[in-house]
Design goal:
With 484 residues, the protein is α+β, with helices and mostly antiparallel strands. It folds into four domains: 123 residues, no CATH class; 141 residues, DNA integrity scanning protein, DisA, N-terminal domain (YojJ-like (1), CATH 3.40.1700; 91 residues, Beta Complex (RNA Polymerase Alpha Subunit, Chain A, domain 2); 92 residues, Beta Complex (RNA Polymerase Alpha Subunit, Chain A, domain 2), CATH 2.170.120.40. Helices cover 35% and strands 30% of the residues. It has 13 helices and 22 strands. The chain has a seven-stranded mixed sheet, with helices on both faces. A five-stranded mixed sheet has the order 13-11-8-10-14. Helix 3 packs antiparallel against helix 4. The N and C termini lie far apart (113 Å). The mean pLDDT is 81.
Length: 484
């Protein structure tokens, strides 16, 4: 349970937005393509992806490689084979209908007129073939035909399929309340499992249903029966009431409460499924492979007592080893990593302070592995000033025969500031090393000051060097006297 809570709390707002955005895109694809053959291929690709992830987790290298190749080929097949259905979906009437809303079947289609006309055609023994594109574009599936653009009516359909009409052998394409074309030629189905009594009209209807999302109504001239084809489904119509119900169901215009409830359940389940699937993909990519990285992070000291000053620390930065997905590791910015060390309990002098996990701020999704060093020595004290005399720090020896008779420092004294515990015991401040073996005559030199410990500072920050004046002369030679 703790692992689950840690996983949820580690999500960034960018991660949540990423998951929701892609889930909505996937849901829109489902809504737009749900009545087409494309959705079946997309679901198959999703299943293949799940199998690929299982194969990777089980270490089946060849199997995962083969499935990846199948997914790539399947995506290409969708684009080539179902290009007409895809084009029909992307030919949305408006941007709003494409990105928002649930597409409904055209409500303006006069179903009653179609039912009465088909029933009359069957009663008179007139063969007919009616094509109603629903969500997809029929595109290249149909050939020929004459532009009609007439308002749908029973009289018009009877005249189109009358034996003496020159277009009665072809199909009439109906969209909404308009007859778009007549005498259209449909592709014949090559399915060998179709009933033997199916004639050319039935095989043309089956072929059109296999290739597009259209709904096709067939009236048999020989048997005067009525059939409806949609995708791979063939529905034998019993009577006009049955035809009316089938058309409403296929066109999505039914007002039955049960059907509406079923549709709401379908979209809710689809939305949840898209959310779960995208979340799984996100975790697969974002957290699938753990990456280790070591970064140097500056230390920020907090909660320092107001009366004390931080004079020194054993380190100003620490090495932090972190783990997470490669994408998250690469996306880390310097300001997202912080190491904060609280000085709230510090006392004057040296303090050994441990670096705890709660003091290390990491981006969501990143875990801490190790920090080096784990403790820092920090020196704090109450600031104090003191005026100290300067003393040259001579090293080495003068050349043989030379002696230094006088040396002075300018300025003679300097004021320093440091911790009270450190300053109170100081009596003299020394310069940097001055080698005597380089001196052969009187003169002056400039040198810096040796501030020890390093926490000491000069009050006059402009003082970089001090001047030393010295006098050197030859050592007197002792005179010996001989007593007779």
């Amino acid at each position: 349970m703790t692992a689950v809570i840690d996983l949820i709390t580690s999500l960034r707002w960018q991660d949540i937005l990423d998951i929701i955005l892609n889930s909505y895109i996937l849901f829109r694809l489902y809504v737009l393509f749900r009545s087409t053959n494309v959705i079946r291929m997309l679901l198959a690709i999703c299943m293949l992806w799940v199998l690929k992830r299982l194969a990777v987790s089980m270490g089946l290298i060849v199997t995962s490689w083969v499935i990846q190749g199948i997914i790539a080929v399947a995506a290409l097949i969708i684009i080539i084979v179902f290009r007409n259905e895809i084009a029909g979906v992307f030919q949305a009437r408006s941007i709003r209908s494409f990105f928002w809303g649930i597409p409904q079947r055209p409500l303006q289609t006069p179903v009653d007129v179609i039912v009465e006309s088909v029933d009359e055609l069957a009663r008179r023994g007139l063969g007919a073939l009616l094509v109603m594109p629903l969500s997809g574009n029929t595109g290249d599936a149909m050939h020929g035909g004459i532009q009609w653009q007439g308002r749908l009516s029973q009289e018009m359909l009877l005249s189109i399929f009358w034996h003496g009409s020159p277009v009665h052998d072809g199909a009439a394409v109906i969209r909404g309340d308009q007859v778009l074309t007549v005498g259209t030629i449909l592709p014949l189905s090559k399915d060998k499992n179709l009933p033997s009594h199916f004639g050319t009209r039935h095989r043309a209807a089956a072929g059109m249903a296999e290739k597009t999302d259209a709904m096709i109504i067939v009236v048999s001239e020989e048997r005067a029966d009525i059939s409806v084809f949609r995708n791979t489904t063939h529905i034998a119509i019993k009577d006009s009431f049955h035809l009316n119900r089938v058309l409403h169901e296929q066109m999505g215009t039914t007002t039955d409460n049960k059907a509406l409830t079923s549709q709401a359940f379908e979209f809710t389940a689809a939305a949840l499924g898209c959310l779960v699937f995208i979340t799984a993909i996100w975790f697969s990519f974002a957290r699938g492979v753990e990456t280790l990285a070591t970064l140097e992070v500056p230390v920020e000291f907090t909660n320092r007592p107001a009366d004390m000053k931080l004079f020194s620390a054993s380190a100003s930065s620490v090495n932090v080893q972190i783990s997470g997905s490669g994408s998250l590791i690469r996306a880390i910015r310097p300001e997202q990593l912080n190491v904060r060390l609280s000085l709230g309990n510090a006392v004057p002098g040296d303090n050994e302070i441990s670096i705890h996990r709660k003091g290390i701020i990491l981006p969501p999704g990143i875990d801490l592995k190790r920090v080096e060093p784990e403790t820092l020595v920090v020196n704090l004290d109450v600031p104090a000033e003191k005026l100290l005399p300067l003393q040259p720090n001579w090293t080495g020896k003068l050349a043989p025969g030379l002696i230094m008779t006088q040396a002075s420092v300018s300025p003679e004294k300097v004021k320093i500031v440091g911790g009270n515990l450190t300053v109170r015991d100081l009596r003299t401040l020394y310069t940097e090393h001055i080698p005597l073996d380089t001196i052969s005559a009187s003169g002056t030199t400039e040198t810096g000051l040796m501030l020890l410990p390093s926490s000491l500072e000069l009050v006059d920050t402009t003082l970089k060097k001090v001047k030393i004046t010295y006098k050197v002369q030859r050592r007197p030679v002792a005179v010996s006297s001989d007593n007779p």
